[in-house]
Amino acid sequence: MAFPHHPTLTRFLIEERCRFPDASGDFNALILDVAMACKSIARTVAYGELGGVLGNHAEEGGGVVNVQGETQKKLDVLSNEFFLHITEWGGHLAGMASEEMAVPYQIPAPYRRGKYLLVFDPLDGSSNIDVNVSVGSIFSILRAPQPEGKRAECDVVEADFLQPGTRQVAAGYALYGPTTMLVLTVGSGVNGFTLDPNLGEFMLTHPQLQVPVDTQEFAINASNSRFWAAPVKRYVDECLAGAVGTRGKDFNMRWIASMVAEAHRILMRGGVFLYPRDTKDAARPGRLRLLYEANPIGFIMEQAGGRASTGCIPVLEVQPESLHQRIGLVFGSKHEVERIERYHAEPVHIELDNPLFHDRSLFRVCA
Ligand code: AFP
Question: With helix as H, strand as E and coil as C, how does the chain read?
Answer without folding.
Answer: CCCCCCCEHHHHHHHHHCCCCCCCCHHHHHHHHHHHHHHHHHHHHHHHHHHCCCCECEECCEECECCCCCECEHHHHHHHHHHHHHHCCCCCEEEEEECCCCCCEECCCCCCCCCEEEEEEEEECHHHHHHCCCEEEEEEEEECCCCHHHCCCCCCCHHHHCCCHHHCCEEEEEEECCCEEEEEECCCCEEEEEEECCCCEEEEEECCCCCCCCCCEEECCHHHHHHCCHHHHHHHHHHHHHHHCCCCCCCEECCCCCHHHHHHHHHHHCCEEEECCCCCCCCCCCCEEHHHHHHHHHHHHHHCCCEEECCCCEHHHCCCCCCCCEECEEEECHHHHHHHHHHHHCCEECCCCCCCCCCCCEECCCC
